Amino acid sequence: MAVTRTFSIIKPDATRRNITGAVTKMLEEAGLRVIASKRIRMSREQAEGFYAVHAERPFFADLCTFMTSGPVVVQVLEGEDAVKRNRDVMGATNPKDAAEGTIRKALAESIEANTVHGSDSDENAATEIEFFFTPQEIVG
Ligand code: ATP
Ligand code: MG
């Protein structure tokens, strides 16, 4: 299995509860390595651009409001089959449906305030990493 990269966001519900370390620990225990990380406050423009694929969904405006409601931690993760590995440890979008042992089962508050984002394909991972990081900020 190839070592690949994915993009992660620790969302405002997690920074508000001071559990960014707990989230990162679960990522690391799942075999992912944090090779870039920074705490930022997303602008409305950034949130709308990042979630542009969801622009037509009924929850889009609320989602952008939530993602700009507090700081987030954006990360680049590296590991074997990183996109799938991260999605597996994140768990289902709705914490009510998330499996035991996943971040969203253990820590998420709701379908919106669900603690983490993770890229859903290698192609989207590359786009999302570029959206938030310069190559110099990524130290593998
Ligand atoms: P993410 O893209 O954040 O990793 P995901 O891929 O599991 O999550 P998506 O379908 O891409 O889920 O939705 C993006 C985000 O939009 C979700 O993580 C969640 O915060 C929010 N969201 C999705 N569905 C709903 C919904 N029905 N109501 C409110 N918010 C939602
Ligand atoms: Mg998604």
Please give a quick description of this structure:
The protein is of the alpha+beta class and 140 residues long.
Structure description:
- There is one protein chain.
- The chain is an alpha+beta fold.
- The protein has helices at residues 12-16, 20-29, 44-50, 60-67, 82-90, 103-107, 122-132, and strands at 3-10, 33-40, 72-80, 116-118.
- A 4-stranded antiparallel beta sheet has the order 2-3-1-4, with helices on both faces.
- It is globular and about 40 Å long.
- The mean pLDDT is 98.
- Adenosine-5'-triphosphate (ATP) is lined by residues 54, 59, 63, 93, 111-112, 114, 117-118, 120.
Bin the strand percentage: 15-25%
SS class: alpha+beta
Q: What ranges have pLDDT less than 50 throughout 5 or more consecutive residues?
A: none
Alpha carbon gyration radius: 14 Å
End-to-end separation: 18 Å
Helix content: 25-40%
Question: What is the helix tally?
Answer: 7
Helices and strands in order:
Elements (H helix, E strand, L loop, with lengths): L2 E8 L1 H5 L3 H10 L3 E8 L3 H7 L9 H8 L4 E9 L1 H9 L12 H5 L8 E3 L3 H11 L8
Antiparallel strand pairs: 1-3, 1-4, 2-3
The structure holds adenosine-5'-triphosphate (ATP) and magnesium ion.
